[in-house]
Amino acid sequence: MSFPKDFLWGGATAANQYEGGYREGGRGLATSDVYTGGALNVARQITYVLPDGTTGKMDQHDEMPANAKGYIDENLYYPSHVATDFYHHYKEDIALFAEMGFNCFRLSLSWSRIFPNGNDSEPNEAGLQFYEDVFDELLKYNIQPVVSINHFDVPMHLADEYDAWSDRRMIDWYTNYTNVLFTRFKDKVKYWMTFNEINLLNGYPLLGTHKTDDQTRYQAMHHMFLASAQAVINGKKINPDFQIGMMCAYILTYPETCNPEDVQKNIDEERNLKYFFSDVQVRGYYPSYKLKEFERNGVVIKKEQGDDEILRQGVVDYIGFSYYNSGVTSVNNRELTDGNVSKVVPNKYLSQSEWGWPIDPKGMRISLNLLWDRYQIPLFVVENGLGAVDSVEADGSINDDYRIEYLADHIQEMKNAIELDGVDLFGYTPWGCIDLVSAGTGEMKKRYGFIYVDLDDKGQGSLKRSKKKSFYWYKKVIATNGDDLSNEE
């Protein structure tokens, strides 16, 4: 069999999409808490209040008014507040993960559950105890926690009062947060990731910054690079056996034609979309192509003495990445389709999901090879999956054969990358192993999980957990270490 005998099989979730309990156990507010639901082609909204008391809404990718603060309108529905309620169902859910045979589970921590304001002098013990209880429950079943330290939000206090990652003090506040985690959980967690999909972060909900211009974003990113590197340095001192990785959204792109202009544009897109971020965190320095881009665009990164050395010392141990789909780049203007975080040229050779994402299993193998050839450090597929509408039959069954087909095809390409190409891949945690709120649209009907959660787009439902057909299929996949991918009873 091509998968290593100690290969990590599991699933992945995020606190702001799954955990719930947003005001319980002393948790403070986060930027994700002012994020309303949305729908396909209907942008999620962020609600805010101005100093004069006027409230407003903005699209999720717009700039926040400079003096605005996050605001919760009690008349609106915010999916993250309950999400699918891991906070109250964690024992039940972990038992289901164990039944599937997970030997790892990727979850993220809510920074504001541990430091309610983000920069408190002391951590919130109730928050730490909740995560300790979760880790102990996982370890009871021999499931290794894989922890994303920060996943798509920021404590709201830091965003409202300091403009979050645009302020250099965030490095110290994040470092204090990670030091507390590393010390408290040094014997319970081995695998860490510093930031989720760092290449996608911008604006108020994800970076906590009111502006979205390049100068603001890249200065904030510099602070995040330093915070990540310092976490690696400190973590290794606390426990040398820690494996601390980065995490990026890997959106493979192909040039539309062999026209050299298309090829060059594709190189530029791949650098801009993803490689810049992994280059810094894996190699430990800013690549020359980005420095030239900064020169052309007037972006000036403010550094302090010692920054470059911290980046060099704090390189990551592995690359965690998400892979859902590929895209096409072209110098010609034409109708575009949804490509996860960007609009891309449709690929005539591929089918699409219900949400318009191209389905490209072969792209998984290509992506693994490109990353392995470029960096030669271990890889971990920490997100992969198919968002789809699932129907509950009269007998309660949920026959998601489309999801089984998607995942089987992608796992086969992972096997090919290991067996045929020699790629060092050590784990796979498909996204949304249990149904959760979509990050992109705020919907529940866009489901990824092996486990169905009774909840609709308006937050109505019993939260009852049910096993889909894919639950039993994935259980077989894990039991055979990826050898049997067939969709047979």
UniProtKB/TrEMBL annotation:
Transmembrane segments: none annotated. One of its GO terms (biological process) is carbohydrate catabolic process. InterPro entries: GH, GH_1_N_CS, Glyco_hydro_1, Glyco_hydro_1_AS. The keyword Membrane does not apply. The active site is at E383. GO terms for cellular component: cytosol. It comes from the Bacteria. Pfam families: Glyco_hydro_1. Keywords: Glycosidase, Hydrolase. Belongs to the glycosyl hydrolase 1 family. This is Glycosyl hydrolase family protein.
